[in-house]
Design goal:
Layout: H1 3-16, H2 18-33, H3 40-51, H4 65-76, H5 83-109, H6 116-126
Helix pairs in contact: 1-2, 1-3, 1-5, 2-3, 2-5, 3-5, 4-5, 5-6
Amino acid sequence: MSLKDSQDSARTMTHNSQLGEDLVKLIHGSNYIEVTGSDFDVTEKLCRRIFGGEEVRAQVEAGSSEYKQASAALVTLKRPSYFQDIVRSRQEIINHAQALNYAVDHVVLNSESITEYFLKEVHGKLCSGNGLGEDTGSPGL
């Protein structure tokens, strides 16, 4: 089995399994603590798409159903819900899902060691995207 086949297999497993459900909960909980991301429904939909191998962008078309759902979720959470807030919340979810996919691919499937380089790669994936970095979110609020 090639590396790509293994990764596709892992994504299918993650997409359709208890592991996938647990990873969605982990991402939502982590973002909730940091006061970033979105509600559980938006988080789950984005994660399932990413875990299924789909390329998901943070930018959404203003007025689309995804935009409306993300906006409503942020309003319910009593967070700003302007266009840039929606993009940022989606980027947080996307980054977490991609970082976890990377970790599963490398550590779980390929039995690679957790090294300083690996941790830097995961951290880079968590912080990628416009305007995201160490100051993202408001932990403990």
